[in-house]
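Protein in question passed on here:
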Amino acid sequence: MKAAYVFEAKFRVEAPGVAFDPNRFETTLRLFAPVPGVEPGAERIDWLFFRDRLWRGEIGDESSLRDAASDWLGVEVVSLSFSELRADEEYLDALKAEIDRDLSRFNAENVDEVLHQYLGSSIHAVDTEAV
């Protein structure tokens, strides 16, 4: 069971006594998603990341998430945009089941509504190896 939140990120590299040309780089960042329903441990995010950070397939508070990504990566992230939740079928099934256990925390009437509210159409089911 695997899943990752995929972002397009631009970051700046600076170091005293060193010059970079260019000093900005673009990359695809995959933030691996924890198992649905499991409370946070050593992971950078908890399983409710989509609820707390995304809205209709976009980052809810880009500045805050950009700051967190800067801390994670050790470089200044200057731009961050959400691309998709890339997950295998087993993860998606587990996510839907966990959402369905307590719909009240999502202010929605069904699982599909929850997924659309937070992830929009940005869910991509793939083989486990493609995550």
